[in-house]
Prior knowledge:
The structure holds 2 protein chains of 2 kinds. By secondary structure, chain A is mainly α.
Amino acid sequence: xxxxxxxxxxxxxxxxxxxxxxxxxxxxxxxxxxxxxxxxxxxxxxxxxxxxxxxxxxxxxxxxxxxxxxxxxxxxxxxxxxxxxxxxxxxxxxxxxxxxxxxxxxxxxxxxxxxxxxxxxxxxxxxxxxxxxxxxxxxxxxxxxxxxxxxxxxxxxxxxxxxxxxxxxxxxxxxxxxxxxxxxxxxxxxxxxxxxxxxxxxxxxxxxxxxxxxxxxxxxxxxxxxxxxxxxxxxxxxxxxxxxxxxxxxxxxxxxxxxxxxxxx
Amino acid sequence: xxxxxxxxxxxxxxxxxxxxxxxxxxxxxxxxxxxxxxxxxxxxxxxxxxxxxxxxxxxxxxxxxxxxxxxxxxxxxxxxxxxxxxxxxxxxxxxxxxxxxxxxxxxxxxxxxxxxxxxxxxxxxxxxxxxxxxxxxxxxxxxxxxxxxxxxxxxxxxxxxxxxxxxxxxxxxxxxxxxxxxxxxxxxxxxxxxxxxxxxxxxxxxxxxxxxxxxxxxxxxxxxxxxxxxxxxxxxxxxxxxxxxxxxxxxxxxxxxxxxxxxxxxxxxxxxxxx
Lengths: 265, 275
């Protein structure tokens, strides 16, 4: 495969946001999302927006990347806005379009809901733009570690995630090869009725699945040969480092949250 | 180093034995080439050596430790294995992560791991690729990373289970050079499984497997003399050996049987200067 392939949308940069511990980012995004759902006043939204904008600027990621990350959900944001505009029937009538009354409460509600959506996506995009998928996996594993005492297979889940990440490019390459091989045998993926095209997809999926199973078998054998025995007595090579930078960011975030609840009434 | 005593193994009760009452021993620091056609039991033999399979009957001991359900974790520390498909044995998302995988499994402390990973990568000359993702590497490079992953565990034996089969000629050469390099710097027993006799020529000793049994064992030179017998059990003699045999038949005598292209060429030059 020639073109560079980056899993997810990680943009490598040297910035304070990139340098943060993945756990810090994950926890902050989690609580940010929670807090956003309880936001009601304009000033509380402003605070949340300022925090996200601050993060975006500090990440040194080109704004275009962020806009690109948001692209799939612009439609949803606008749709929610319009729906709320028409469905809400409270407050005073502001004006009417084609004889359909728009209420002032509806405008406010529509603005609130769509900015909520916008902020949520902005923060999660920021997380994936500045953190490698593998660090996110590691962070999830360490953060969920307490659940191990409930016999939940946290280590296995994390390993599954990291192996999937590792094999995504391999499987993409394989898909490419198989589709070319099948096309050379006369299977048409691109034209014809959707039903025929759906059938053609099977000619791609079946070999792909068979080879994926073969790979899984080989991989399991190789892992065992290298002494893999589950979580038993295992140490970790990749390290998550909690630095003073993380502490500072947490403090800023706590201040933001306190400020938020103060203005939120 | 590795002792087999009347070892049998069958995958299925109804079918025959894949390995049949095999007794043999591999000495420390020896480079063994294990050859045989498909289904001769050579890969089964490899999997028996590090406890991926346990024998149906007979006993196997590695470095004095007898293989059983209680000891195979210990034995896997002593016997590392490089498999056929370079892609499917790469566990980590980067070269470094992959080399560390075996160490993580053994519970090696992190500081120690960092040292051993770098040392192992330097050993196979892949240190400059340490942050690369596997899809950026060639087959030969991936196999070298696999070797590094095993070296990091510091085993006594490395088994190459048809590790060169899926590589292009350059990759094969890369792999053989790496093994030769290792033999210079380290004491290490090598078991090299292949059906390519020209690769087997580099070994100290060749063991020929047929129908689950040891069919022949000896120095490459000795084994290659049995051309017709080897072809009968489905093994293709290297070109160099057949040139030597052909010349012999026509009465042109070389000093000794050449094993590699260079030896052959040197001897041909000598011969032509005498004429």
